Request: fold
Amino acid sequence: MDPQYRPEIIEPLAQRHWQEKQSFRAVEGPQRPKYYCLSMFPYPSGKLHMGHVRNYTIGDVLARYHRMKGYNVLQPMGWDAFGLPAENAAMQNGVPPAKWTYDNIAYMKGQLQRLGFAIDWSREVTTCRPEYYKWNQWLFLRMLERGLAYQKTGVVNWDPVDQTVLANEQVIDGRGWRTGALVEKREIPMYYLAITRYAEELLAELDELPGWPGRVKTMQANWIGKSFGVEIHFSLTERHEPGGEVLKVFTTRADTLFGVTYLAVAPEHPLALAAAETNPDIAAFIAACHKGGVTEAELATQEKHGMDTGRKAWHPFTNAPLPIWVANYVLMGYGEGAVMAVPAHDERDFAFARKYGLPIKPVIKPAEGELALPLQAAYTEPGILFDSGDFSGRSSADAIEKIALVLKNLGLGDKRVTWRLRDWGISRQRYWGCPIPLIHCEDCGVVPVPDEALPVVLPEDCVPDGSGNPLARRDDFVRCTCPKCGRPARRETDTMDTFVDSSWYYARYCSADNPHAMVDARADYWMPVDQYIGGIEHAILHLLYSRFWSKVMRDLGLVRYDEPFGRLLTQGMVLNHIFSRRTEQGGLVYFAPDEVEVTSDDKGRIVAARAKADGQPVDYQGIGTMSKSKRNGIDPQALIDRYGADTARLFMMFAAPPEQTLEWSDSAVEGAHRFLRRLWRMVYEHVILGVVSAYSGGELTPELQALRRALHETLQKVTDDIERRQQFNTAIAAVMELTNHLGRVEGIDALTRSVRQEALELVVLMLSPIVPHICRALYGELRPGACLMQASWPEADPNALTREAMELVLQVNGKLRGRLTVAVEATREAIEAAALASPEVQRFMGGRPAKKVVVVPGRLVNVVV
RNA sequence: GCGCGGGUGGCGGAAUUGGUAGACGCACCGGACUUAAAAUCCGGAACCUUCGGGUGUACGGGUUCGAUUCCCGUCCCGCGCACCA
Reply:
């Protein structure tokens, strides 16, 4: 055995072995239970980043652990290969997105292989390949047939200089990122998928996902946003006639109806548009609302503006005339695009009423106490109605029911359910995506591409230039014949949202090689995914779209599952130090951590930093997510080259629990490597004395008995940490603690060596899902001729776990005052008596009588005086 | 702005169901080995202290025999907000 740990030798050896033996090839078979372990596939941006290493290490640990537990494990990998960065790179280097993407894939695949992940590469899926996206198109056509896909207009960011649609990411401070032009909103025709038809099921089935983190389910539920409210019709004529003109609003707070002092409609509302036709001021206001981008964050944080349309509506109960305003804070996409404004009981309405001098009329007071008048802020809690006609004195909940009932009888409204969720707009005016399979014919209108003509293949040699979609300029793509009438027609040039690609890739892994069907019976075997791992940033959109897509496939009879992902682990981001410097022009330049020399105080805190290049000071900005713009990313390749894959994997798993953010630290990497070296030497020093078999029974010294107990307790803890808790950092800490213990046990007699053999074998097995290369080598040394790939996950020996005595904590008034060793079978009374008699307790009782004695079995005794 | 998380020594973190706060690791300090250094090994340490003890888990309050953990409020940080993936 090599006395030195040499990852550069043992890692390629292990990887070659796995490749030659096809160790991770997954084959369907009913003999063993299946375990489908899936990590979110990467976007091929160029090279792996630390987030990938973290994500795929977590997945690999779970895959390898379950493999040892006897499961038939599938761990596939693929590429989310369409997307905007490829077009940006093309603009920069003049290389077609296809070439850039395929080159990146080749490089990153090599990096993944170098990390030793137990991946079945025979199922690799690449979303920009026609054999994959053909099925996007095919399913889109099925959805079109069922009315689940349809056309309507949607609002996009428009760059007036480049004459192009911008992604939200390309709008910076309200301006186009390349032109600097103020961005405008523009309505264009788009295709939508009717995800709202599945809203009820998407919401209800969150309860059927016990393996999902609560926070993800809460976020999804809030996103879907089912709210029970009342639709109220405000008459647009003073005397309301049945069937007369009304303005419909939706509210969850019908109890505040008597507090309405004005109505507000969105700038896109028909009423606003009608007013604009006769009033140039309103037209100008609406035009002003069209400035700026379309994100909800931008809309919600902008200053609230409004303008009186001059029109009035009449209150359904009091018949009071109410002014109708156009307001930029009313969203056309939610409810009716109009709200009844109750400044006294809604914060936004309150701010708006203050600004424009509109009346504020309180009608709800707390159940106990009074409202402090005049109101300094909106009172938004439910309470008791007053100044509300016949409804005064009722509670909010009661009033909502009654008001809805009366409105219904008057024909002026009814209870209604509203969703926050909107249908999914999938059209993108971009080149590097899956073509939408439609044809525009002057005579026949929009005609679907027939199934036999699929896939509509995207030409791979275009180079976008930042203005418009280059596909539109490709005659060979655009010109086609109408499948209906056979006359010349134009092909749709919009492509699909890349979320479409990622909404079903997990099912395609199961039947990746089938050219005739989207999925086949093998999906019935593997699906649903047992364990899904990916970034928390995907908590809503990707996961919700995938759930929706699954249900559509199910309803088409393609798959049998309702939910695609059984258990979900959302990993945290990877962070690093940020260094920057103000330029003379007032700009900010960032320095990569390896370009900076840091001065720390005697406690190790960073107090100063200077650039290596010029020796001048730079500012330390603290810690933040690794990003290109802040230049604080660390290339995992450097880490792997220097320390090997196992060190990279160990550091990632040890530095933080998987769900939390992880801070990069050079010295912690060093520490992980040091542990592996220590482990190597420990095994080396043991095996050079000759081969022994692991302890299998016989009388032990107390020291060896304690070691075996620690060993098997650690095994129990590590098993629980990996399988149930998925807290790999504490599993590693427990093994480290055990190796520290093992290192303190001396002696080379046969008995000691047999226990040491047992301990080292178990340590190697326990660590093998995390650091598989070194463990493969060490296992071969400990048991010559044996192969780790054939080893099972060990089980704790119950005989090693027995104990006769245990230690309890003694407290007086909740403060730790001493310890007490008692027999395991000691009764509560005996423990209480022994505790009261102990000198520590006596001392702190100070002669006072015990008021109460709390005995927590196995833990502590608390004496209250 | 809205939704969801998080905040514990010098640092990353541990404390799993309300029961010993600080496991494990990093950095630091001291010692051993060495001509020396690196590597390695051993030991120390939350803070204050009159050495009895006291204080301490972002901040302020509450519930409890007992709160890092539960409740209310405040501050700060992160993620998402529908065309980044």
